[in-house]
Specification:
single chain, mainly beta, Jelly Rolls, 6 strands, 0% helix, 45% strand, RmlC_Cupin_sf, Cupin type-2 domain-containing protein, RmlC-like_jellyroll
């Protein structure tokens, strides 16, 4: 059992800030913070993602839809789907769950889970 203190708390770092808080063989979890008015410049990931909005408000944009998001919302983004948080109107903090674990690599690079 692990207790992750501070997970989901907004960290005021510019322009945005991701903190990896736990990594296991099958998943990882971290907190992503985006201050008001800042731009989310992330690239698509090789991992499936679940976001849990802990604080703040913004809009999540994907090729298929646009969603206003706020505290308590849970969002699923499949691996390799382009997505971006825009119009951050309140400091945004998200718990982010990746499966398999996030590697921090560009989607065109080999992923450790793909190794035979």
């Amino acid at each position: 059992m692990h207790k992750i203190s501070g997970a989901g708390e907004f960290k005021h770092e510019l322009p945005s800030h991701y903190v990896d808080q736990l990594t296991t063989k099958s998943l990882s979890v971290g907190t992503y913070s985006i201050p008001v008015g800042e731009t989310d410049d992330q690239q698509p990931h090789r991992e499936d993602e679940i976001y849990v909005v802990t604080t703040g408000r913004a809009t999540l944009v994907t090729p298929s839809r646009t969603e206003l998001i706020g505290p308590g919302d849970v969002l699923f983004v499949p691996a390799e789907e382009p997505h971006r948080f825009v119009d951050v109107t309140e400091d945004l903090a998200l718990l982010v769950f990746f499966a398999p674990p996030y590697t921090g690599r560009h989607p065109d690079l080999p992923h450790p889970a793909d190794a035979s």
